[in-house]
Structures are given as structure tokens and as C-alpha cells.
Amino acid sequence: MSESQQISQxxxxxxxxxxxxxxxxxxxxxxxxxxxxxxSPFIKSQFGNAVADISAxxxxxxxxRIQQRNEGVYIIQSAIDDRSSNLAxxxxxxxxxxxxxxxxxxxxxxxxxxxxxxxxxxxxxxxQLDTDKALGALKLxxxxxxxxxxxxxxxxxxxxxxxxxxxxSSLILIVDQDVDRNRLNVxxxxxxxxxxxxxxxxxxxxxPSAEINMHQLLFKRKDETHSLxxxxxxxxxxxxxSFVVGLTEAQSTVLIEDMFYAEHIFEKLxxxxxxVQTQIQYKExxxxxxxxx
Length: 293
What we know:
By secondary structure, the protein is an alpha/beta fold. 55% of the residues lie in helices and 11% in strands. It has 14 helices and five strands. Helix 1 packs antiparallel against helix 10. The longest helix is centred in the last third of the chain and has 22 residues, at 224-245. It is globular and about 60 Å long. It starts with a helix and ends in an 8-residue tail after the last helix.
């Protein structure tokens, strides 16, 4: 079996793990181009029809990954419901960027995500950013996708995007599916990366996102309600930091909680928001060439 065929086989195994097993029987090409509902405008907008190019890109990324030391993190999170403490993971990329780990974070827009991020920057505009430039400047890229995308299509396409990156070291999937961890580890070993799955089920309930006071959450002075929320978020996020950095979950909880009190998370979010606005304004004001050279 050629390396390209092995790539297709492993991607198909991933699709089986996260998409009920019924859309990956004939490999990558069948999954993306023949099987419904994966034959969708969204997937075509991400990858087009060139399945061979997808396999080639993933194969090249794998080869490059073996030759270099990588610390890139890619977090993919299923849609976040209101009143769910899974909202904590929205802050994971800000925390990891503060720990000097280049992090791409992707989820679908929902009310709590919009409530937290929209006051700081335009979520639609941020999708126009050059990911590599954002990582180079801030070690951070937040990709908040349309809520209308089929959840399984969103998950699969984001996994593919992650595997196309040669700098990928850690892939974190925050999902509500039960996943065969042994099969997942086999796939991770093949791609020379670390993969973990964090269950979004049974997350403790919190206050509605509209009632969260960001100045209480992200600054030193907190009332009792936001102190408790900080503790819940820190305990949820400890799984991510422990996986990426190598600390125990207890150590990670203390580190994260300190960041919530020391305003480091707010500072990183503010800098990212300013970066988004600056980049969009630059694109809008960039002179257009009238004639081809």
C-alpha cells in the first residue's frame, strides 16, 4: 500500500470514529465526494473536489512533521451550549498562547461564544486573517465558524485542516461522542502527533452567558459568583493544559486560576482583538493595482 493510500485509510478511520462509521467504508474519496451528507457546499468550499490534493497535503505535512520539532496545538470544539461549563474551553487558546504554545482554536458560533467575544472584535472579520501570520505575531488564531454548518462536517473538516499543518503537535477534540481511544491512538501514532478527546457531556451547569461579567471573570476583584465560576473554568481547562504542557491537573488548575486573577487572559484577548482590527483595516485600505505588470 502506498503512503497516499495509507493516508486515505487513516482519514477514513477518523471519519468512522466521529461520524457513525457509515461514511468511510470506501476511503477518503468516497467519504468526501460520494457519500451523503458529506457531499456538501461547506466541504467543497474548504477542499474543493481535489481529494488527491488533500491526501498529498496531509502526506507532505506528515513528512515535514517528522523532520522538525513541533509544538503547535489545534483545538476543535463542538458547539457550546448556553449555561454549559464547556464555555471554559473558549479561553484555552488564550491560556496556551500565554504559555508560548502556538494555538489554533475552532468552534461554531453560538450565543455564549458571541457574548464573550463579540464585544472585543468582529468574529466574521477574524476569519479573513492569515493563520500563519496570526500565529507568528501572537501564537493565536481563533476560528469561529458558522452555526449552520452540519456538526459532523465541521468536525471532520477541521480535523483535516489540522492534519495539513506540519507544525501540528497536539490535537485536542472537545466533543460529545464516545470515541474508541485505542483506535484513536493508532491514528495519532501514524500521523506523528498527540491526540486527546475531552468529553463535553456531563459538564457542570453555570450561569447564563449573558449574566457573566467579563471584568469580574478576568480581573482580580471578583464576587463570590465569579470566584466560583473561575474555579469551575480552571478545573475544566486543566485537562487541556496538563495534556499540552505536561503538568499535573492539580498544578494546571492553580496555574490557570492565577491567570484569571492576574488579568493575563484579558490582556491576551485585548491584544488579539486589536490585531484583528488592525489587519482588517490594512486589507480594506490597501491600495489596489489598476494594471497587471
